[in-house]
Amino acid sequence: MLEERFGVPLLARSTRQVRATEAGLVLYERAIKVLAALDEAQEEVARSAAGQTGCLRVAGSLAYGRHYLLPAARAFLERHPNVRVQVLVNDRYVDLVGEGVDVAVRVGELEDSTLQARRLGHEELVLVAAPQVLRGARKHETLEDLAACEAVVLLRRGGRSVWTFRPRERSTSKVPETQTVTLHGRLELDSIVAVRDALVQGMGIGVVPLFLARDDLAAGRLVELLPSMEIVGLPVHAVYPPARRLPTKVQSFVTALAEIFAKPTHSSGE
Known about the structure:
The chain is an alpha+beta fold and 270 residues long. Helices cover 37% and strands 28% of the residues. It contains 9 helices and 15 strands. Helix 3 (62-79) crosses helix 9. The N and C termini lie far apart (74 Å).
């Protein structure tokens, strides 16, 4: 009996009633909490087991799909052999709830919505052009010069052709001065990969993610303009539909994404 184990009376008995002693009440309250914690642990294990099977649908742009989603999918699949992953790679705006997508990568300031989000980092940007563009008659020496140049513009939901620049070398004692430049162009593309391709072909100047232009810069196919200035980067988030308890497989994939973003920038490849 418990009373023999603890060495104290837990119940006070009489011919008319049985009531808990002070020690009995303490044991009862503690036991209720332990049982509740056990029930919660059992539910969490059940949810975890359920999250390690089935299909996970993730989405992102072509550029981010190649450089971040696929490496994250590889790491995720190695950890979860019973889960299938569908990677939707395109440059259109994806309706997560309507299209049954579990996780998507979004670049830029997030619009007000019911989606949950985790910030992964920021997109480091670079203003570039092909060498033949720089050999033309037009100057590319100041921000004012660039505003008058022919640009290749990205079309996307939340996209912009207005960029904020600041000195790359700046004092830490005060807020650096920034300048805003609007790029104008007659060529508008809906894919940042296509923008990169058009820039390599000498169709104008433009802004692309550094990870996408790194190989072209190293090979001399592109040249950075105004290297003394840098573009204020855009935030990058993993977004997912709201849930009181986030599915384990979603948590795991977002963690894999965060790990990939924490590594040095991937080579853009071909």
